[in-house]
Design goal:
The complex is a heterodimer. Chain A is mainly α. Chain A contains ten helices and no strands. The model of chain A has no long low-confidence stretch (mean pLDDT about 80). Chain B is globular, with a radius of gyration of 19 Å. The two termini of chain B are about 15 Å apart. The chains are: A mainly alpha, B mainly alpha. The interface between A and B is large, with 48 and 50 residues.
Chain lengths: ~210, ~200
């Protein structure tokens, strides 16, 4: 594959499709577990999105390079080994540089291994495409995943604790003096589901071809 | 005994895998269209959690933890292999699932035809790996406790998926706004079920 074709229109579509039309969370229904659990605040959500970005794009390239060597019967185990090795690296880096966030993410860093986005993309894309395309697909899907994470975390942190990235926005605006109270419900797990549900509702009423038939 | 009962109840209701930690959501959403298949999937999850957690408990306590290798020789007292736990746990899970599948296929074709298709899916279900990682984090004191925790988490997951499947079967006859149909409404219902389950949170065990 020549260099310029890497940025051709078709390849750019690989990057942009997962952001909306083929979003991993709201359309492909992949990788939901971690998306919901760590969106109480923006900071862990951003860290998680970056970790998934690294793991997914590297795993996509690695599997794509090995795609002719992997016997299809044991491919799942091969995927898991590749992903687990990458996740261990990410976990060690997080522990070394942002220890408090890594404590907050607790088991969810490990759960990137079983994050179905990664297995799903490896199975559906990397096994059948050359490394360059696989890399773009990895980037695109992790951006799509990251966007949802960040939007959900934005609303939950703003409405639930009145801060953004730890900065007390509402307090600075003086809303509390007017009698405003934080909605403690937003911090609790069930509201993450409702937030994503509403997000899907909004996306589908804007983009009607995504509407499911019964 | 009472301690075990507490762990069991706690892992079913208070620390419910689906409603409190969102584990296993992918298969939870994908397979909950009918009650029948969701019962099969739920049973398979109980089964696999009940087997993999004690295995991983032994692995954690006799191989991975700091000083766990002391039973071989005292030289290993400072060896800490816990950074390997992700890869070891997932390897154990994947191989046990594979093994269980073969054993069931050989000895009980009836069970195999009802559980069989779900077993391979389970290797990548985050509830299973999550169970092992929580077991590691919470440091259960004996293998019995860990097993009871595993079974309890499985039962909690089973309850959640059968509940949502029953609701989804009914909701097919209601007039849901088009854009909310399918996935959207399932999320919102799960949220409402989660709020119901939160009423257990005040219970101190």
């Amino acid at each position: 594959m020549s260099k310029d074709s890497l940025f051709s229109k078709k390849n750019m579509k690989l990057l942009s499709d997962p952001l909306d039309d083929n979003n991993p969370i709201t359309v492909q229904v992949l990788g939901i577990c971690s998306a919901l659990a760590i969106t109480v605040q923006l900071k862990p959500a951003v860290v998680m999105a970056l970790s998934v970005l690294v793991v997914l794009s590297v795993a996509n390239v690695v599997v794509s390079l090995m795609r002719h060597m992997i016997p299809s019967r044991i491919r799942i185990i091969v995927f898991l080994v590749v992903i687990a090795a990458l996740v261990i690296l990410v976990d060690q880096v997080l522990k070394a540089f942002v220890y408090d966030v890594s404590k907050e993410l607790s088991v969810f860093v490990g759960l990137i291994i079983t994050n179905c986005i990664i297995c799903g993309r490896l199975e559906a894309f990397a096994m059948a495409n050359p490394p360059g395309k696989a890399f773009l697909d990895g980037l695109g899907n992790s951006f799509g995943y990251g966007i949802i994470l960040i939007v959900v975390a934005f609303f939950r942190e703003l409405l639930g604790s009145g801060t953004l990235y730890g900065y007390p926005v509402l307090e600075k605006l003086g809303l509390y003096d007017l009698g405003y109270e934080n909605n403690g419900m937003m911090i609790l797990p069930p509201m993450a589901l409702v937030t994503v549900g509403v997000l899907i509702w909004w996306q589908r009423s804007r983009n009607e071809k995504l509407i499911e038939n019964k | 005994m009472q301690e075990l009962a507490n762990i069991f109840i706690k892992s079913i209701f208070i620390d419910n895998m689906v409603f409190a930690y969102f584990l296993g959501m992918c298969s939870y959403l994908a397979i909950s269209k009918t009650v029948k298949t969701s019962v099969g999937m739920g049973a398979a999850v109980i089964f696999v959690l009940g087997i993999t957690i004690p295995f991983n408990y032994l692995l954690e306590n006799y191989v991975l933890k700091e000083g766990a290798l002391v039973w071989i020789s005292n030289e290993f007292i400072n060896v800490d292999l816990s950074f390997l736990s992700f890869i070891m746990f997932i390897a154990v899970i994947a191989s046990i699932v594979q093994l269980v599948e073969m054993v069931i296929e050989k000895f009980s074709p009836a069970l195999y035809s009802s559980l069989g298709i779900f077993l391979p899916l389970i290797a990548v279900n985050c509830a299973i790996l999550g169970g092992s990682l929580f077991m590691q984090e919470r440091d259960y004191s004996s293998i019995t406790e860990a097993t009871v925790f595993g079974l309890g988490s499985g039962v909690g997951w089973f309850l959640a998926i059968v509940g949502i499947a029953a609701i989804r079967e009914k909701i097919r006859y209601s007039n849901v706004p088009p854009a909310l149909r399918g996935l959207g409404i399932t999320y919102i219902i799960t949220g409402l079920m989660g709020i119901a389950f939160m009423s257990f949170m005040g219970i101190k065990l």
